[in-house]
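Morning!

This is the sequence you dropped in the shared folder:
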Amino acid sequence: MLQWCQYLLDSYAHWVKHELIPREGTPFDQAENLFNSAFVVVSHVIQDDPILNYGNQAALNLWEMNWRQFTKTPSRLTAESVNRLERSRMLSQAKEQGYISDYHGVRISYTGKRFFVDQATIWNIHKPDGNVLGQGATFSTWRFL
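The structure's back. Tokens below.
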């Protein structure tokens, strides 16, 4: 997970041209700071039906899941079925462009609470050699519907 957090942070800085969190201390310190950030950070790996592989504490709280539940959840299930096509288009756009920074949409928690996400950034997560591993998302603005 430490290596994944480094890829996530390095890729965000690459695409967005600023750091997601202050890059102070060891990789462990940075992973701990990322996990405890007040804003949401999530990611999934690239595969046919991506499974969430990271969610910081803010994400776990928002989606009302523990780490084990969250990291077994198909990414598509973070949106209701009526919103999945729009979500898929957004992920494709981010994949083609490297990132997008103005995403908004409705998501749903594990217990069925609907919430509106605004001004989310979605970016490709890659290794230093450019090999794309997955996609990350972050946002600090949401409201329950």
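Headline: The helical segments are 2-16, 27-35, 57-63, 67-70, 84-97.

More detail when I'm at my desk.
O.
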